[in-house]
Structures are given as structure tokens and as C-alpha cells.
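Q: What does the assembly look like in three dimensions?
Context provided by user:
Components: two
Sequences:
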Amino acid sequence: MDFSIRDAVQEDMSQVLDLIQELADFEKEPDAVDITVDDLIKEGFGTQPLFKCFVAEMNEEIIGAAIIYDRFSTWKGRTVHLEDLIVKASMRKKGIGKALYTRVMHYAKDKGVKRVEWVVLDWNTNAIDFYEKSGATLLKDWYLVQMSEKGLATFVNQNV
Amino acid sequence: MDFSIRDAVQEDMSQVLDLIQELADFEKEPDAVDITVDDLIKEGFGTQPLFKCFVAEMNEEIIGAAIIYDRFSTWKGRTVHLEDLIVKASMRKKGIGKALYTRVMHYAKDKGVKRVEWVVLDWNTNAIDFYEKSGATLLKDWYLVQMSEKGLATFVNQNV
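A: Here is the predicted structure of the complete assembly.
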């Protein structure tokens, strides 16, 4: 396996979007991806980018990606959020995910953040095992809460 | 109840930190708060602030706070994260939390984000009821995962 990890460039975003869709399929939410390549370029490569992306590349093809951004904990301070860690299905079990994950952890350590955090589906036992073996901790007593764009519009209209 | 909601200023951060500690006590993590007033000022009021804070004020005292920041969903796009929504214990059940929450939702709507998201402890039924009534959705099949600063150092040392 001769792959390399590098910072993503704008030209990678089309292949990265394919990976994002692949992850959504895997997570049983195939219709959830509303974002476009243009959105990824606009939000990731402006003067105040909303995310940073690492890609795994082999034979000029993008076979994996990690997408991260800064967050802030009012208990700990500056943290890094790992939004997505994706390896192309046909390329799994070859150390690509571990290499991307390791790059993210080095990046976070170099930035001096107080924590790296992310979420995982409760049935994704392969990922959970990997995260726990790496030294991460699962917090099982918290729920994610989301107000959708539609819910937001309704709430705001009802609470002027 | 004659309180007002406004953007926080640096001089509020000492009282906001008291509220953050109060929330940590309520969430049964009294020793979790490592952050200082100086950290809050540095990270919240620089040229690229890591968070935005709204406060509820009554008689020149800060009685509540909401702390938010931008996030990014690779499915939806730009989102707002609600990190903390805190009302001083002696001031609860007076509509202050609802007023802060409403301000956050208006802010998010005005920014045109695709979602507002946050987390809640599974035993905090008062908060859960409030969130659900407001139109938010609980996602119960995800776990939070955290790599602590110490775990990060260990992992990075073992995976150079």
C-alpha cells in the first residue's frame, strides 16, 4: 500500500464529496447530503475557513479524508472536532484510516488543544473499538440535540 | 422580572465563569472547569473569536448566559453549536433560559445556518422536555467520543 496523507486542495473537493456521500450511505442516511462541491470550496478555502481537510491519496486518487475544525469547550478551552473520518469502502482495513486519524491527532497536539472530540454511531463497533484502543473515551450519557433549518424557522416565527 | 438579553463584553467574563462553574456543579463535574477568565477573554474577544456569548442581565448582575460558535456539517453546511445555556439556580423558571434560547435561535436564523445543535445529559429531563417542545430532535443513537489532552499526548508519542 503506497498511499500518502496531505492537506486537501480545492480540486480534491469533488472526490471528497463522493466520500461524504459514501459515509452517509454507510450511516443509513443516503438522502442527508445537501452540500455541493461549491459549498465545500467556499466554506473550506476562504479567508476564515470553516474546516480543514486531510486526504489520503494513492495513484492520484483520493481514497480517504478527515475533516476537522476548531471548537471551544467552556471547561477546557480550545479543542479540535473530528467531523468525518472516511476511507473508501474498497480500501478499508489497510491502515488508511489509522494514518488519517494519526495525522489529525498530531495536528491537534501541535496546536496545543485541550481535547479532540467527535461522535460515532452506537452500532459502528469497528470504529468504537478502534477509538477506544487509541485511548479515546466514549461518553454514553449525553444525547445529541438538533434544531433543523425548518424547525428553526418555525420556532423563530412563533417566538418573535 | 425585568431582565434584558445582550451581547457579552469582556467585563462580563468573570460572572460568566461563575455560571460555567455552576453548570459544571449541576452536571456533577465540579472539578472539570480548567478555564480562566483570561482564557475566556482571549478566546472570545480576539480578531477570530472562538465563541460568541449572550448574557441575561438584571440589576447589573449577570443571571444567565448562552455560549455559541460556528460549526460545519459535511451534510448540511454551516451550523451553530450551542455550547452552554445557563441560568443562575436562584433565577430559574422565570423565562430567562427561554429568552436566551430564543435569542440564539434568532441569531442562527439571521445567519442562515442549516442547523443548530448541542448536547444534553440524558437525566436532565427538564431541559430535554423544553428542547423537544421547541421543535428540536434528540438523536439517541450517537455516542460522544473524546480524546483528552493526556490521551492525545500518549497517542502521538506512540504513533510518530
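Follow-up: Chain B has a mean pLDDT of 96.
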